[in-house]
Amino acid sequence: MATDVQSADAQPVIDEEQYYHDAQLGALWTASRTLIPVVAAAFGGIYFAYFYLRSLNSNGLWDPHGQTASKIIGLSILLLVVAGTAMQLMASRRLRRGFSTDFIVGTAANVLFLVIATGLQIWELTRLPFPPAASGYAGVFIAFAPVNALCIGLSAYWVFTLMMRAIRSYSFYRADGGIGVSAHRAAENFRANLDGFGAYGIFFMLLSILSWYLFYVLH
């Protein structure tokens, strides 16, 4: 009887380490996906101003002199972002197959592309053929360019931290097949972070294509 009572009153044993690990994975998933609507809202405000002022075109002041930002620089920034995203996706797939070195090399290339793209976007602001208040287009572009440079720069920082973690843990996970396949909790945490960047990277690449079309082609 006593045994039955003890069995009935017994509580399930909770693995606290696994509990906190699952919480970390959930937090990484939520934070990375929440960043997508946050960035979308920032660019959405700029796009709203773009279409509103373009459709209003008060006194023909949307773009009266046809002075737009450099299409060559704009296309260069877009190609760097697209190439970096493609490189990162390929590197992540290689990591999942146990090729950590390929991931590090591919990620380093992505970091380089994003840093160059950030520099080009900032440099473009120093050589615009119009002042901020020259036209509706000029005002919206002056709002867009710093936001775009900031987002690209933060993307470079995010993926750089992933690359450094992979380099630091290279020897530790080698016996396990690499950080991309290891069942270690820290490795799972790393892959969750990487998956979050992958989702954000694809989103930002599509956003960059739209921005390029609006500000450098349609304008």
State the CATH architecture of the domain at 72-217. Answer: Up-down Bundle
As a whole number of angstroms, the C-alpha radius of gyration is 24 Å
CATH class of the domain at 72-217: Mainly Alpha
The number of E-state strands comes to: 0
End-to-end separation in angstroms reads 83 Å
Strand content: under 5%
CATH third-tier fold name of the domain at 72-217:
Four Helix Bundle (Hemerythrin (Met), subunit A)
Under CATH, the homologous superfamily of the domain at 72-217 reads: Cytochrome c oxidase, subunit III, four-helix bundle
What are the segments in which pLDDT stays under 50 over at least 5 consecutive residues? none
The H/E string reads HHHHHH
Percent range of helical residues? over 70%
**General shape:** elongated
Main beta sheet strand tally, sense and closure: none
The chain-level structural class is: mainly alpha
Output the number of helix runs. 6
Mean pLDDT: 87
